[in-house]
Design brief:
Layout (H helix, E strand, L loop, with lengths): L1 H30 L11 H9 L2 E7 L4 H16 L3 E5 L4 H6 L7 E6 L2 E7 L4 H6 L2
Length: about 130
């Protein structure tokens, strides 16, 4: 019986470890984009981002629990500022792939053709303030 308990513990620790490593890799990949030029972006949102001096592109998924809390706030902000975009990754996968989005919610801040920041999870208040 002790060997079964040990086996289950090893499986659990391995799963948790793998989850943590994946989260760190997603975070590191997102942070590596900061300061780089915005790649060519497909679709109407991509065209509008390319024309904007600055833009905030928020990516969400309908199945994402955290997104359900954040998305209405971003959509309200988008009604006030035409440079704020809420993008459903299930409908605009090519745009998400072009910006290397690997998790939702994720937000990309663009200024003068460069990626200023990539934020995973909630959008920092100071970023929201810049677009209010």
């Amino acid at each position: 019986m002790a060997t079964l308990g040990t086996f289950l513990l090893v499986i659990l620790v391995g799963f948790v470890g793998l989850t943590v490593v994946m989260q760190v890799l997603v975070y590191m990949r997102a942070q590596a984009l900061a300061g780089k030029p915005v790649p060519p972006l497909p679709g109407p949102v991509g065209e509008r981002v390319a024309r904007s001096k600055q833009a905030l592109v928020y990516f969400f998924s309908p199945a994402c629990g955290a997104c359900r809390a954040i998305t209405p706030r971003v959509r309200e902000l988008g009604k006030k500022n035409a440079s704020v975009f809420a993008v459903d990754v299930s409908e605009s996968f090519d745009l998400a792939r072009a910006l290397r989005i690997m998790a939702t919610p994720s937000t990309v801040e663009v200024a003068e053709g460069k990626i200023v920041g990539v934020y995973l999870g909630p959008i920092p208040d100071e970023v929201v303030a810049r677009f209010s």
